[in-house]
Specification:
Elements: H1 41-49, H2 53-64, E1 81-82, E2 88-90, E3 96-98, H3 104-107, H4 123-131, H5 141-157, H6 162-172, E4 188-192, H7 198-215, E5 217-221, H8 227-230, H9 262-267, E6 287-291, H10 306-312, E7 317-321, H11 327-330, H12 334-343, H13 350-358, H14 363-377, E8 382-388, H15 398-410, E9 433-441, H16 445-456, E10 464-469, H17 482-496, E11 500-504, H18 508-517, E12 522-524, H19 532-538, E13 544-545, E14 559-560, E15 565-566, E16 576-578, E17 586-588
Helix pairs in contact: 7-13, 7-18, 13-18, 14-17, 15-19, 17-18
The structure holds guanosine-5'-diphosphate.
The site of guanosine-5'-diphosphate has 19 residues, from helix 7, strand 9, helix 17 and helix 18.
Length: 593
């Protein structure tokens, strides 16, 4: 029913491009290769980074003029109108002009990204900075140089190299490869299994990458579940996808009872740890499976202890399964702490940097992002993202709708509306602010209600025009469906381009958006028993501002490795705290400013 992509026809000027929206689908019409169509990104990118003297003068002028309506471009007799105080100019003919606010360094996110990749193969890698009003945090110099060295490692040891063939051969023949045999001891590998929802997969890959970075392992990502179609290659000149022919043919079915899991090898005394020095590599197995999903046992979670890390570091191949953001657990390992402090002096921006480094939408997904952004969000003075995670068979919930409304109003993100009987049209002179609301959800009901609310009622104060948009409503979570995942990825990314974010607690979908955007969200808490009727009564407040933009680690260890006993791991180091949405979860916060 609901036209998912429709802009609310409230008192906001409807962008011209909306008329191009596909009648069949919710996304604006796709052109040719799935890249942003003419008049959007590609053309403007060239303009912005190239020459365009006239545009540069225009930009310079606009930058010194305070936000107000201005008339320009008489030559083309199409007046250009100021619509944003940041980096976008809407011309009279409706096209959008971006000016060269993005220099080469910004384009590479403060050198977080290496230069030198072919731009056409991954537009998002070079264009994302143009779409972000929030430039994000600066990466540390140490992180930048570590990333360059790691890229070099990935090229030297990755698929297609002699070192990789040797390591695969050692694994096939069951040799540890570390004892001077065929394998190359300086090339060790971590294979990350991709499973569950897209948010889980992204957090898992980011976690695996940080572990690989800390331990100088080559990261290889299991290409299943669309991981090969959604993201560009992050490491220039090589692939991060595990190639076909991997000797552990059943690795995607490894689970808690796999005999080669590190936890089971400890339990069955195939491996022992202790303070009596390192185990000689030749006595180590050729690979270990690291089981860190929500079913992980106490022994599996010894992975987060120093003495176990001393053993694990010499095992040439690791295969890791996690559906979690295990990074806060890595901050508990004493041996990693100094390096982590240097890499991330701002401890609340770890996923922010890892995510922006690793996850670049492929051109098809980037087309979904940019077309939607240009059509519905670019011109708004403020953009508010609302992620409504509908779990399981949860019905359309008036209580949840009320929670969303109360939250956005309490946080001053959206205006209250005036009850019936009040004048619906504000005097033109009073219209000062336009706000675009981006709703993402599997259902359209919440969006429909919000859209109607802001259309049928005037906003209090009459100075704000609110439009409401939702790119898709897929109804149910699907697995192994490319277009479903592409929409999910595009929507996470679009949420990350907003100025303020409201998320649903417990959801990795929201975690990814907030981290990429550098946004500390307002979090709506999930009702204790999932029952819609209990929702309002159970919650003292509709939402709370989170303590940081970092994702929450839902299944952390509860063990103090030094004291060798159970402990509250939210109290061991100052920047690892419990999450607000998942109370037993762990989250990185910032302790120094
Ligand atoms: P989580 O389950 O909330 O932690 O998030 P995940 O991303 O791991 O899994 C939920 C999956 O459901 C997503 O990956 C999508 O496939 C689908 N999904 C949930 N919410 C949305 C939404 O708002 N938009 C879209 N397009 N898909 C969604």
């Amino acid at each position: 029913m609901g036209s998912g992509g429709g802009a609310a026809a409230a008192a906001v000027a409807v962008p011209r491009k909306e008329k191009q929206r596909s009648a069949a689908g919710h996304w604006p019409q796709v052109e040719d290769d799935g890249v942003a169509p003419a008049s959007s990104t590609k053309r403007h990118a060239r303009r912005a980074w190239c020459c365009g003297g006239v545009n540069f003068v225009l930009a310079a002028f606009v930058m010194v003029v305070p936000p107000m309506v201005i008339l320009l471009d008489a030559r083309a007799s199409s007046p250009a109108v100021w619509i944003s105080s940041v980096n976008v100019l809407r011309r009279g003919d409706g096209s959008i002009l971006r000016w060269p606010a993005v220099d080469a360094r910004d384009k590479l996110l403060g050198s977080l990204l290496a230069d030198g990749s072919e731009e056409g193969s991954c537009h998002s890698r070079y264009q994302s900075a143009m779409y972000r009003r929030n430039a994000g945090r600066e990466p540390s110099a140490h992180l930048v140089s570590k990333l360059r060295r790691h890229e070099e490692l990935q090229r030297r040891c990755g698929p297609g190299t002699a070192a990789y063939s040797d390591a695969v051969e050692s694994l096939r023949s069951g040799r540890s490869g570390g004892g001077g045999g065929i394998g190359s001891p300086e090339c060790r590998y971590l294979v990350s299994i991709s499973y569950r929802g897209l948010g889980n997969r992204i957090l898992a890959a980011a976690s695996a990458f940080l572990y690989a970075l800390l331990t100088d392992r080559v990261l290889l990502v299991d290409p299943s579940n669309e991981m090969d179609e959604l993201f560009c290659e992050p490491f220039p000149g090589t692939t991060w996808l595990l190639p076909p022919g991997f000797p552990l043919t059943n690795y995607t079915s490894f689970g808690v009872s796999t005999a080669e899991s590190y936890g089971n090898m400890l339990k069955n005394k195939v491996i022992t740890t202790g303070d009596d020095g390192d185990i000689p590599p030749a006595r180590l197995p050729p690979f270990a499976y690291v089981h860190l999903d929500h079913t992980a046992t106490v022994e599996d979670k010894f992975f987060f202890c120093d003495e176990d890390q001393r053993v694990i570091r010499n095992i040439p191949w690791l295969v890791m399964r996690t559906d979690n953001y295990i990074v806060p657990g890595l901050f508990l390992v004493t041996g990693f702490q100094q390096e982590l402090d240097s890499l991330f002096p701002e401890t609340d921006a770890v996923f922010h940097h890892l995510g922006r480094y690793l996850f670049h939408p492929t051109n098809h997904v980037w087309g979904l992002v940019t077309r939607y952004y240009d059509a519905y969000l670019a011109t708004a003075q403020q953009r508010v993202g609302i992620q409504v995670r509908v779990f399981g068979r949860q019905p359309e919930s008036p209580e949840l709708l009320e929670q969303i409304t109360a939250c956005t109003q309490k946080a001053n993100l959206l205006p209250e509306v005036i009850a019936a009987g009040e004048p619906l049209v504000a005097p033109a002179s009073a219209r000062r602010k336009s706000t675009a609301v981006l709703v993402t959800s599997l259902k359209s009901w919440y969006y429909e209600r919000m859209k109607s609310m802001y259309w049928e009622h005037a906003a209090a104060g009459a100075g704000e025009a609110v439009s409401v948009h939702q790119p898709s409503h897929e109804e149910f979570q699907q697995f192994g469906a490319g277009s479903h995942d592409a929409k999910a990825w595009a929507e996470m990314y679009l949420l990350s381009l907003t100025d303020a974010l409201v998320t649903s607690g417990w959801s990795t979908f929201g975690y990814v958006a907030q981290g990429l955007g550098g946004l500390t969200p307002w979090v709506m808490h999930k009702p204790a028993n999932d029952s819609a009727s209990a929702a309002a009564a159970d919650r003292p407040s509709p939402c709370r501002r989170d303590v940081s933009m970092e994702p929450c680690f839902h299944a952390p260890p509860f063990y103090d490795c030094r004291l060798k006993r159970g402990a509250d791991t939210g109290k061991i180091v100052p920047h690892v705290r419990h999450c607000q949405d998942v109370q037993w979860g762990l989250k990185l916060v910032r302790t120094s400013w």
